[in-house]
Amino acid sequence: MIQNRAALAANAAREVALDCIEAAVAAAAPEVATRSVVSRVGETLTVGETTYDLGNYTDVVVVGGGKATSGVTRALESILGDSLSGGHVVVEQAIDTETVRSSVGDHPLPSDRNVEATIDILEIVDDADEDTLVLFVLTGGASALLSAPAGDLTLDDLQTTTDRLLSGGVPIEEINAVRKHLSDLKGGQIARRAAPATVAGVLISDVVGNDLSTIGSGPSVPDEATYEDALDVFAQYDLTPPPAVRDHLEAGRDGRISETPFPGDSVFDRVTNHLIGDNATALDAAAAVAREAGYEPLVLTSRLRGEAREVAKPLVAIAEEATATGTPVEPPAVLLAGGETTVTVTGDGGQGGPNQEFVLSGALVHDGDAVIAAVDTDGEDGSSDVAGAIADATVVDDRERARDALLANDAGSYLSQIEATVETGPTGTNVNDVAVLVIPDPSE
Questions:
Q1: Domain 5-26+280-439: CATH superfamily, name plus number
Q2: Which H or E run contains 215?
Q3: Which InterPro entries does the entry mention (predicted)?
Q4: Measuring CA to CA, how many Å separate 60 from each of 114, 140, 192?
């Protein structure tokens, strides 16, 4: 899975870190996650704890999008067989499907082909009636891949807004509060358009805390955010929306545009959403691998958030405490954490992403022998084409240059030069970031 593993595995601690990363990503594989939750016996389809009698439906369709949607769709096609009527999904990498049409889209910024494919999906959903079962697949990356500008908004409006929010270090929950109110499908609007069809949401979480309304901006989930909340995001982070976006949000705030459907809306009467995989799935698998290697694993949290370079520091401090005192875990040990950190871009837009900033910041402040690794499970850290990085204090040979790179949001350039980046290519899944800190036995 890790394409440059041979170059990175310089010692036993690094081997363990890389093993943990590979196990974490493999455990979140969408086909595995789907088959663990979705099954069929005769005409009875079971998703989680809910059963659907396929004989009650004239049409069964699969629609949706996201980075991990390919694997979910393949598994659903296999499970449903000839009961599946068709559908359409938007993915990041081309896949072979038998019944469901697939379109390749762009991420992290929406594109013309994203919009074109999403419009077709909306037409399928609009045609659904009370005799239709809609399997709505949603995974990380769907907020960009499923794009349908609302009202008079243009694709350029969505691109500019998304870019400003991502560059401004805005947390994903607040980014998606804005996206929901600039879209014709997000924020519960798939449910509104599909009614009175039966909708079974099949979701893989890429958000901290698994808030279903935040995953992919919640197309099948009630929305508690408002147009005023979306406007407040720009004010809070001192960001300026494009004029058309401001006009649209203000029109919604003033009641000239309908709000997204709130909890309790009747459009959700025949909608059930099922979470089939998340960051905890990945962390549990990494912990098992660490234990098998003779290291005591400690899962600290699956809710990491905040500025990546700052989040790294307390985790490194825990590793140092463990080495010095055996608290909170006795070395040899592996600390594990997951979530989604952010980067506020203040430099000229160098290379890298949150995981690379996490690793470089951690290596710079660390006073010990721990190996620090962090990756985005989708294989793409921020806007870079690497998954993350792995390092320890000894490999940061030029500390002044490393600090300058970190300050310039160019951690990726420095880590690449010292051959510390982790390269996987797109993994086909997306359950947030995974951080691994391997603490060797101090007596060795």
A1: MOFRL domain (3.40.1480.10)
A2: none
A3: GK-like_C_sf, GK_N_sf, MOFRL, MOFRL_assoc_dom, MOFRL_protein
A4: 23, 23, 18
